[in-house]
């Protein structure tokens, strides 16, 4: 349903008002979706919606409240405190059970999350939390155990194209213009798959064209560069800054890494978010080229949680500069990804009998463990036997990187495995 107030941003005018109008998330809101079933019964549990920005978390919460005719309250974890939470709970206690939506709930500290526990347990409120971070890490266990967690997926290009088509044909403002989209790449690239950003970007491009015109990559990039602050007014630089920091580390530039980190710190970014990104980078981008990087990053992650701002900025800086100046390798990252792709293609191949555990007499009679050569009974603690499923004998997943540490590992693997894996 299209709103009547033409002064509202396009993203608000096109915000769905029913579950049938939602774009994407069919695994949750489609005909067999679990949230559709919950709405049909009128029974909404407390839940956490986990997914990237602009995929419909806020919209879904509003639709659920409207569908079951519950009072609806919303708080932002960025600007709300325990006092705000308690006021909503007290109002719900006096008036009626309320559906409380908390955006970016991962930014609530433990005390703020604990303030919700009693009200959720007693049914005073139904909590819907939205988060872009893994709730297993960012929502405390007591609150998480009282909520269902549902994952929202990134919108596909087809979803985004349908959204744009709907905007041009149904919106009370844009439908009066003669606009045609000839190229989509820049629209998708600049908006990053965020539906809200995409619609806001479309609106400012349409404004620049006037009553009619064609939308192509050139015009989108030109308008975006001139008016970046307009379509990014919700300050969704969170992920862009993190991406810049990680790419600077990957590119061995400690100066840029510290700069982008400082931007995140200045913007009030959660210390754990920064530390977690460093921890991932230590394994994904450095890995076996310097295994100590993972130890350093893990210690930094633990330390900043103990110290907190502002002193934790020093620990974060030390970790970032260490990672940036470390030799780089993504060999471990590639190895696990290739192994997972192989499993998708080959299925669950049987474990060779000699590698199977044989805790019972029957299993031993079936040949479990028979012929296994215990590595430590051999020279150099190495037993030349087959460890792969038969269908994958000789298949290599780990390819050592081009650095001093892994060059040594390559020679070690070549010495023991000869030509089997082609090292």
UniProtKB/TrEMBL annotation:
Q: Which UniProt keywords apply?
A: ATP-binding, Nucleotide-binding
The record, for Pfam families, names:
AAA, AAA_assoc_2, MgsA_C
Query: What highest taxon heads this organism's lineage?
Result: Bacteria
Q: Which InterPro entries match?
A: AAA+_ATPase, AAA_assoc_2, AAA_ATPase_RarA/MGS1/WRNIP1, ATPase_AAA_core, DNA_pol3_clamp-load_cplx_C, MgsA_C, P-loop_NTPase
Q: Which residues form the AAA+ ATPase domain?
A: 43-155
The record's section on SMART domains has:
AAA (SM00382)
Function in brief: DNA-dependent ATPase that plays important roles in cellular responses to stalled DNA replication processes.
The record's similarity note reads:
Belongs to the AAA ATPase family. RarA/MGS1/WRNIP1 subfamily.
List the protein's name: Replication-associated recombination protein A
């Amino acid at each position: 349903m299209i709103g009547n107030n033409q002064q509202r941003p396009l993203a608000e005018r096109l915000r769905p008002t029913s579950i049938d109008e939602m774009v994407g998330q069919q695994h949750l809101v489609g005909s067999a979706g679990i949230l559709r079933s919950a709405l049909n019964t009128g029974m909404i549990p407390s839940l956490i919606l986990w997914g990237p920005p602009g995929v419909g978390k806020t919209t879904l919460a509003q639709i659920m409240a409207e569908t079951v005719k519950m009072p609806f309250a919303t708080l932002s974890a960025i600007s709300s405190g325990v006092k705000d939470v308690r006021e909503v709970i007290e109002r719900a206690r006096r008036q009626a059970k309320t559906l409380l939506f908390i955006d970016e709930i991962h930014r609530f500290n433990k005390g703020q999350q604990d303030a919700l526990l009693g009200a959720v347990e007693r049914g005073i409120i139904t909590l819907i939390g939205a988060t872009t971070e893994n709730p297993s890490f960012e929502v405390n266990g007591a609150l998480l155990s009282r909520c269902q967690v549902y994952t929202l997926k990134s919108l596909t290009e087809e979803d985004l194209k349908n959204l744009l088509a709907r905007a041009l044909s149904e919106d009370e403002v844009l439908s009066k213009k003669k606009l045609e989209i000839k190229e989509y790449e820049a629209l998708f690239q600049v908006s990053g798959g965020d539906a809200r950003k995409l619609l806001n970007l479309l609106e400012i491009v349409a404004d620049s064209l006037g009553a009619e015109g064609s939308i192509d990559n050139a015009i989108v990039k030109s308008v975006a560069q001139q008016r970046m602050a307009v379509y990014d007014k919700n300050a969704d630089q969170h992920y862009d800054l993190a991406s810049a920091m990680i790419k600077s580390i990957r590119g061995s530039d400690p100066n840029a890494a510290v700069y982008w980190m400082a931007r995140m710190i200045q913007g009030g970014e959660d210390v754990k978010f920064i530390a977690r990104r460093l921890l991932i980078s230590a394994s994904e981008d450095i890995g076996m080229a310097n295994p100590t990087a993972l130890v350093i990053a893990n210690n930094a992650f633990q330390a900043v949680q103990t110290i907190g701002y502002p002193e934790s900025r020093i620990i974060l800086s030390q970790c970032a500069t260490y990672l940036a100046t470390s030799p780089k390798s993504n060999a471990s990252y590639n190895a696990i990804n290739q192994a997972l792709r192989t499993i998708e293609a080959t299925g669950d191949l049987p474990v060779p009998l000699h590698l199977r555990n044989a805790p019972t007499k029957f299993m031993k009679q079936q040949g479990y463990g028979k012929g296994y050569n215990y590595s430590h009974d051999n020279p150099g603690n190495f037993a030349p036997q087959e460890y792969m499923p038969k269908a994958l004998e000789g298949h290599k997943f780990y390819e050592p990187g081009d650095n001093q540490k892994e060059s040594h590992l390559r020679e070690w693997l070549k010495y023991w495995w000869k030509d089997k894996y082609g090292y």
